[in-house]
Design brief:
The protein has 546 residues and is of the alpha+beta class. Helix content is 46%, strand content 19%. The protein folds into three domains: 12-145 and 408-541, GROEL, domain 1, CATH 1.10.560; 147-216 and 371-404, TCP-1-like chaperonin intermediate domain (GROEL, domain 2, 2-Layer Sandwich); 219-368, 3-Layer(bba) Sandwich (GroEL), CATH 3.50.7.10. It has helices at 21-40, 65-70, 77-93, 97-116, 121-142, 151-162, 171-185, 262-286, 299-307, 318-328, 381-404, 413-429, 433-444, 446-454, 459-471, 499-517; strands spanning 2-4, 7-9, 17-20, 50-53, 59-62, 144-145, 186-189, 192-195, 200-206, 214-216, 219-221, 233-242, 290-293, 311-313, 332-333, 345-355, 358-364, 372-378, 406-409, 478-481, 486-489, 496-498, 521-524, 544-545. The strands form eight sheets. Strands 11, 12, 13, 14, 15, 16 and 17 form a seven-stranded mixed sheet that branches. β12, α8 (262-286) and β13 (290-293) form a beta-alpha-beta unit. α3 (77-93) runs antiparallel to α4. 47% of the residues are buried.
Amino acid sequence: MTQIGGQPILVLPEGAQRLLGRDAQRANISVAKAVANAVRSTLGPKGMDKMLVDELGDIVITNDGATILSNMTVEHPAGKMMVEVAKTQDEEVGDGTTTAVVIAGELLKEAEELLEKKIHPSIITRGYIMASQKAIDFLNEASDTVDFGDDERLNQMAVVSMTGKAAESVGKHFAEIVVKAVKEVSDESDGKITIDTDYIKVEKKQGGDLFDTTLINGVLIDKERVHSGMPKEVKNAKIALLDAALEIKETETDAEIRITSPDQLQAFLAQEEKMLRDMVESVKKAGATVVFCQKGIDDMAQHFLAKEGIFAARRVKKSDMEKLARATGATLVMNVKELSAGDLGAAGLVEERKVAGEAMTFIEDCKDPKAVTILVRGGSEHVIDEAERALNDAIGVVSSALEDRKIVPGGGSIEIELAQALNRYAKTVGGREQLAIQAFANAVEVIPRTLAESAGMDPIDTLVELRAKHEDGTNKAYGVDVLRAKTADMFSLKVLEPTKIKRQAILSASEVAELILRIDDIIASSGKRAEPSMPPGGMGGGMDMM
């Protein structure tokens, strides 16, 4: 930075662009709002689907916010921040991605109006921070509790998360599967439940219909037995997991073996055979009837294993080996000679079956499986993909409810309560921050407003009606009954959502809005455009929305 005649001069590369002050804020806010508007119409059970077509012609049809945003190439940095909100929400709680992005867009829309009134961005961000903290406190106070054994409520939450998606017709069937799966992989320590959803494997196979989707109390791996002479079915299986090849290793350094007579060659081959036989003998001695190997199995070793009646699969993925260890209780062994009976796992049945024309291995009836598999069936690839997304949302919802044990009524009812609580809080704060807190309250109401719009209801009349019912304190669970296009008590309709999802959505939305509002200078290097060049939002390349 230099000065000439008292005027600052910023030296930038040739072709660089710069936006300052209100221009920078206006550009960032318009892009963020465009991203939010792209997914807003997908919110709720009556939300519309988006068709995404990439440059190769591959099609994705979905109303899942995270999927839509991840398949759109957003070039503008403010737009990328909004996409990160969806990713964070999806990774943290598995659902509520659209809610988080829509609230973030509405917070910035409200902030834009305050900026037009000459209110400084730092005052707005300070008010937003105060409002988000108060909102979290209120959410915790307003929450009801859910117990580990409350299958009815857990099933209902799973159904609600899938309503409006392609899997809605089989919502109850999927919900039962998801609740069982999540409970199987849950761990309890000091009264606290932790759930690693990575141990719920979702395997997709085209064919049949969605009702053929099943839960396997164990692991399904996309591998077949390595030798046709091996048994296709092993009951009461003793399972060995090997992270070592059942092959003769090559030397680490270059070596040359000189063989000058047929006897020496025969002795060399006999030694190789003996080494492989010893490996198989180690497996047999340990008592294993099934072997899953992360690396290769030599043809000769396959023959010996088949002669001993041992089922074996090779080149099993590391992630599947970890799931097998969790499901069967087996220990992953690095050296086959060290394998012992104590390292073996157990399963009631290991069987090779054909699914959609492909051989797969089912490891079922595990005693206490801490890893399970959901096998998704469906008539077409698009149906199966959307069913998988619905299942992932349901898994996130049920996991969040069990870990946090707090739930709130859905249908936009908790947002109305939250808005009223924030408006009351704003009056106690005073100053210009009060305006920001009231703006936050208005922004949160975008959820019931959008739900009303998607149901064909008048959004203004619906909000007025809901506010009136919540103000008297007797109808705190009233929200938008989207399916019947009227307002109703969400608890009586069993429309419930985990508090954790709402909490994360508000935190993520608030943080990204505060971050974008603090930016008053955009310097873009040559070849990059800082201002929106869209459809606003910089959504060029990649997938296009139709």
